[in-house]
């Protein structure tokens, strides 16, 4: 197995988060190209039915299930599968699968900061990372980047915007990049007046106009925190300072992002909004694999429009720039506070407009204890601190806004 003469002969892949949106789309790609990719390991949360179907179809050597109480059910569901995969459970099990065997690449499709430790384990095992979990880099950037350099592994972006930037950068010489322009769809409420945001329900927030994604990221798109997090992700991935990363609203989601190079030339990557393309490129780089996907038709896609992001309507963007500029553990605090706030919103315990408020309060409270060069322990500690802080803030604050739920 391996890459010969710069062509993909057969790439072995481990997939973390196999039953989620990223995971199922990655497996569609693997199923379409059985001559190019094979699955070595799978890790999932608790969807036994889907996971057992995946085990049957892709015959992984090693499988982790996050919820240990489901192990016997899983064992029963795949009793007739030959050969039987090694089954492991819990966080430690996911870490084990991430580092397991001869997988060359690990696709990190686990949602949230839970992806950090498995990704670190994969890097230490010398695996290439197809980064579909942005939180890993946002929270763990100060620890993950030196590890990537130390182990000489490739970190290939699978987020659509960062894949676009990465694609535009192919052939741009060192020092040629001047500015990054991230495009944002504007999320579920882009056409709502700011006054109506107080009435937003969970169902409203889960209706994304262009992309089909998991629940957490769809809410992040509605608050535009997703774009703010992507600014931090772009900073870590491409080494560009925050003054040279801009956001523009592009409702059609056809241009997935752009770069400006030193001579002011602007390069863009275009396509239908379909996560499979950035996932495929992260797995096939530097090759281009032929697909039967619908080609982009510029006449059919119609007018491409752009507008300035409204920072009053979407305060999460500015919170993310501020946390990114502060550096150290603050991006981890921002990220964890956001994860906790979104979870509370999805449980209907806080209102939509309280999401940025509780995040801002958590970041403010933390800032005096921030450290410039955090260790992994500092980052994990800050993550836990921020989750507790958001729970405490949401329990102690008067539920003036929540009454409208
Ligand atoms: Mg994205």
Protein model, in words:
The protein has helices at 21-32, 48-58, 71-77, 90-99, 116-124, 134-151, 160-169, 202-205, 215-223, 225-238, 276-284, 298-301, 316-326, 330-346, 354-366, 376-396, and strands at 2-4, 7-16, 37-44, 62-65, 86-89, 105-108, 128-131, 155-157, 177-184, 245-249, 255-261, 266-270. It is an alpha/beta fold. Helix 1 (21-32) links the parallel strand 2 and strand 3 (37-44). Helix 10 runs parallel beside helix 13 (316-326). It binds magnesium ion. Residues 159-161, 230 line the site of magnesium ion (MG).
Secondary structure topology:
Layout: E1 2-4, E2 7-16, H1 21-32, E3 37-44, H2 48-58, E4 62-65, H3 71-77, E5 86-89, H4 90-99, E6 105-108, H5 116-124, E7 128-131, H6 134-151, E8 155-157, H7 160-169, E9 177-184, H8 202-205, H9 215-223, H10 225-238, E10 245-249, E11 255-261, E12 266-270, H11 276-284, H12 298-301, H13 316-326, H14 330-346, H15 354-366, H16 376-396
Parallel strand pairs: 2-3, 2-6, 3-4, 4-5, 6-7, 7-8, 9-10
Antiparallel strand pairs: 1-2, 9-11, 11-12
Helix pairs in contact: 4-5, 5-6, 6-10, 6-14, 10-13, 13-14, 14-15, 14-16, 15-16
């Amino acid at each position: 197995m391996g890459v010969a003469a710069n062509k993909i002969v057969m790439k072995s892949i481990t997939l973390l988060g196999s039953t989620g949106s990223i995971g199922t789309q990655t497996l569609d790609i693997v199923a379409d190209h059985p001559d190019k990719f094979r699955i070595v390991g799978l890790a999932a949360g608790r969807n036994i039915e889907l996971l057992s179907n995946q085990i049957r179809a892709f015959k992984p050597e090693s499988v982790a299930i996050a919820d240990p109480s489901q192990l016997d059910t899983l064992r029963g569901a795949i009793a007739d599968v030959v050969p039987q995969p090694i089954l492991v459970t819990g966080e430690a099990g996911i870490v084990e699968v991430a580092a397991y065997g001869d997988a060359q690449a690990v696709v990190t499709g686990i949602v949230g900061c839970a992806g950090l430790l498995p990704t670190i384990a994969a890097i230490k095992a010398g695996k290439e990372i197809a980064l579909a979990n942005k939180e890993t880099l946002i929270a763990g950037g100060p620890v993950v980047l030196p590890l990537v350099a130390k182990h000489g592994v490739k970190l290939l972006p699978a987020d659509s915007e960062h894949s676009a930037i990465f694609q535009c950068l192919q052939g741009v010489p060192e020092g040629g990049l001047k500015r990054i322009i991230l495009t944002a769809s504007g999320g579920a409420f882009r056409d709502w007046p700011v006054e109506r945001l107080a009435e937003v329900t969970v169902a409203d927030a889960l209706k994304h106009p262009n992309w089909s994604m998991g629940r957490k990221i769809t809410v992040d798109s509605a608050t535009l925190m997703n774009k703010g997090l992507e600014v931090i992700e772009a900073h870590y991935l491409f080494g560009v300072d925050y003054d040279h990363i801009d956001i523009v609203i592009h409702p059609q989601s056809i241009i997935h992002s752009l770069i400006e190079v030193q001579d002011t030339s602007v390069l863009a990557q275009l396509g239908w909004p379909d996560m499979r393309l950035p996932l495929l490129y992260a797995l096939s780089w530097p090759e281009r694999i032929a697909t039967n996907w619908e080609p982009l038709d510029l006449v059919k896609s119609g007018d491409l429009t752009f507008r300035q992001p409204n920072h009053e309507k979407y305060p999460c963007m500015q919170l993310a720039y501020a946390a990114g500029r502060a550096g150290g553990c603050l991006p981890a605090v921002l990220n964890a506070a956001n994860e906790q706030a979104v979870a509370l919103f999805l449980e209907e315990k806080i209102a939509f407009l309280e999401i940025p408020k509780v995040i801002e309060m958590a970041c403010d409270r933390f800032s005096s204890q921030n450290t410039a060069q955090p260790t992994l322990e500092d980052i994990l500690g800050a993550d836990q601190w921020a989750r507790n802080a958001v729970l405490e803030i949401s329990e102690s604050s008067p539920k003036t806004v929540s009454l409208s739920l």
